[in-house]
Amino acid sequence: MSRPTRRSGKYAGTSATADDRGIKSMRLGRYPFAAGIPMYARSKVGCWNPNSTMVEESRKLRQIGRQFETLKKDGKVPSADPRLIRWVDVQEWMLTIRHLDPDVQGAQIMRLNGYLRFFRNYSIQHQLDAGFRLPRRARRTIRVIDEDDLPVIFEAAMRIKGWTGSVARGMMALYFATGVRPSELRLAEYNDLDMTRLRFFVRHPKGEGNWASPEWVNIIRGDVIPLIDNYLRERSAFLASVDRSDEVPLFPKQKGTGFYSANRFRQIKQMVVKESGINFRLKDFRSTLCSMTVQEDRSRLPDMAAQLRHSIATAERYYAAIDRSRAGRRLKDAWKDNQIVIRQTTAIDDDNEVTGYE
Length: 358
Known about the structure:
By secondary structure, this protein is mostly helical.
């Protein structure tokens, strides 16, 4: 009987198990990175929310897998097999994501590290243990939508036709009215919206099953209530037209049953971006709501913390980050308070100036 292999470094004292040897002998096919993702996802059952985190993490890992397959095709790495990826291969991959925000780069590296560790590949972990520093912004800022842009965005959604336009208008109105996170609205059921008491039930909150529980939040923007009411009328008419009046999702799919995917929600949002000419993300409505509610009266911050389901301390940091992102906008007109006088005629236009030109 063969003896177990001993490990070195931080992992000394542990032995290679039958599971380790099983992973090494596993057949992952032509696209090994992608083939291993479902196995990794199954190992996270009970840790990841199956309706949101698992779907999103799997999507991001598939994206990383495609990047490694491209590097392999171009001859820059020898393998895209998660068991065989080396640190030099990771470094080559990191060059392909340098255009991303530093925080996003860091998150992607840690995402890849977790995936490789599942396959007993510690190439990234060893570097982290040795002091490798993840890319990270010195200070977090949070994007907000300019108040002048909001009417333009909503008016652009009005021009999108069909059921897709109805979904676009309804989801943006509810994101802005409640401040809920993208997946919290996407996975909502019809009965989660209570227009009599103007509240919304967050059925699948971030951290569900770990540190968060479902709860009600208020609809706090009365100016978009007509848009929400209009969406509900359009929803009823659409479902009646396709004989699906008993659909559970608040945002039923145009074809088939069940909830929209996160990717489809982003595609619908992107239609509004294209129509309005204003780039924004769905989660920007959350920060925009916080900013517009609190900026004129900081005493509202504790109440806003409850609406966002943050602690007051977290809400303070969150609003401070939002406030920094708005600082430049507030400074744009500051120059008007102490203008300098600049001569309008340049030297080359002065008749008395020798310029060398005939």
